[in-house]
Specification:
Blueprint (H helix, E strand, L loop, with lengths): L1 H8 L3 E2 H11 L5 H13 L4 E3 L7 E3 L6 E4 L6 E4 L3 H4 L41 H6 L4 E3 L10 E3 L2 H7 L4 E3 L5 E3 L4 H27 L1
Antiparallel strand pairs: 1-3, 2-3, 4-5, 6-7, 8-9
């Protein structure tokens, strides 16, 4: 019955979600029984078990090799068809992004070969990276639609948009998403600025001692 319900759902259910479905048919079944059977079935390769860091395990009736997309806002998991060869080609542009964020079982490389780029501007020529990062306030939050109210870390997209607008994307519903990977160049330049200042102060101290 557990296997049949998972197949019928055509979804990637957690043990708790599957238990809720099976219990309607078999009221006396326990959650422990559902957990135990799912582990047995996944261990035997009859179903697939999806390990998502910091989240409940999900189970998939489809054991064929395929990729998944995971929304960090609503926790929904769907199948996704990817041309893995295209992912690694140098002429690939931007990966589509979503306000809820996504996770897949494929590592993405963003095209950054300088031979393919134009209108290159150095971060240091856009003003102090330290000052920009100092204007941001890190926050901890949970999504309104997340029933489990899991805590996440990040920035307010609206605040980041006012400081580093190129790191904020607006989707078709006017919801804002943050390109956190794009923060890395600013962090690197901020460290370099701080190190240059430290070197300058050390030099001044040595001159004072002499």
């Amino acid at each position: 019955m557990i296997l049949k319900e998972l197949q019928k759902s055509k979804q990637h259910l957690t043990a708790d979600e599957l238990y809720g479905r099976v219990k309607k048919i078999m009221p006396r079944i326990s959650l422990a029984t559902v957990y135990r059977n799912l582990e047995t079935l996944s261990g035997a390769g009859v179903i697939a078990k999806l390990e998502i860091s910091g989240r409940q395990k999900r189970f998939d009736y489809d054991t064929e090799n395929h990729d998944h997309i995971y929304c960090v806002q609503c926790q929904r998991v769907d199948n996704i068809s990817l041309d893995k060869e295209a992912v690694f080609t140098s002429d690939m542009g931007q990966i589509p992004r979503f306000a809820g964020g996504l996770k897949t079982s494929v590592i993405y490389y963003t095209g950054s070969d300088i031979r393919l780029n134009e209108n290159v501007i150095k971060i240091k020529d856009k003003g102090s990276a330290v000052e920009k990062l100092s204007a941001l306030e890190g926050i901890e939050y949970s999504f309104k639609e997340d029933k489990e109210k899991r805590r996440m870390l990040g920035f307010s997209a609206q605040e980041l948009q006012s400081v580093i607008p190129e790191l904020v994307l607006k989707d078709e519903n006017d919801m804002l998403a943050v390109d956190y990977t794009g923060m890395i160049p600013y962090l690197v330049e901020a460290i370099k600025e701080q190190q240059a200042r430290i070197n300058e102060l050390e030099k001044m101290l040595i001159e004072m001692e002499n």
